[in-house]
Design goal:
Blueprint (H helix, E strand, L loop, with lengths): L2 H11 L5 H11 L6 E6 L4 H13 L4 E5 L9 H4 L7 E5 L6 H10 L3 E5 L6 E2 L9 E6 L7 H6 L2 E4 L11 H17 L9 H15 L3 H11 L1
Parallel strand pairs: 1-2, 1-6, 2-3, 4-6, 4-7, 5-7
Helix pairs in contact: 1-8, 2-8, 3-7
Length: 225
Amino acid sequence: MTKKEALDYYNHIAPMLSDRRKDLFDVILAQRTRHFTVILEDLYQKHNTSAIVRSCDIFGIQDVHIIENKYKSYMSNQVGKGSQKWLDFHRYREKQINTQDCIDDIKNKGYQLIATTPHNDSCFVQDFDITKKSAFVFGVEKEGVSQTMMDQADGFLKIPMVGFTESLNVSVAAAITLQSVTDKLRRSDIQWQLSEEEQFFKKIDWMEKTIKSIKKVKERYFEEN
C-alpha cells in the first residue's frame, strides 16, 4: 500500500474511532522504539514469555523476536494483559534449531547482539553504551542463553546482585534491563523514535485491531476502491 493509498484508507476508518483513542495511539507511538529489540530464546514457561512481552510494551519496545527450538511459545492473557496485541513478533521455528536464523536476521538489520548473562566479561546494565542498535537476548529458564548465542554475541550484560541468590527470574531480569536502557535512551540525544512513516502505518494497524468489524470494513473498502 502506497502512502497515498494508506492515507485514503486511514481517512475512511478514522471516523470509526474516537478522537481520544486516536490521540492515545499518537502518544504511545511517540514513545515506541526499534533502536532496541528483544530476543527470547526457547522460553518454555508461558508466564515468563507473557511477562516479558508486557514489559516490552510498557517500556516502548516494538519488536520481539521469539526462537522456538525445543519449546513452542505461548502467551497468557492473564499475565500479558493484551500487550501482545500492540507489538510486532518475529518467530523462528521452521527448523529443529532456529537460533542461527535469528542471529543472521538480527545482524542483517544492523543490531549488535547482547547476551544477558552473569558472564565474567559482562557489562553492568547501568553502564551499558546505548548508542548502538542492540538486541537483548534472554535465554531459556535455568540454562540461560545458548552457546551459539554466546559465541556470536557482540557483548554481554548483567544486573548487579549482592545477595546469596545468583540469578533472577528471566522475566524480572528483562524488566530491569529494559527499564534501565530505555530510560537512558530517552534522556539521550539519539534518534530512537520510529520514523513518521513507521508511526503512521503502525497507527493504521492499531486502528484495525480496535475496530471489531474490520474484516468486513476492509473487504468493502477495497472492493469499492
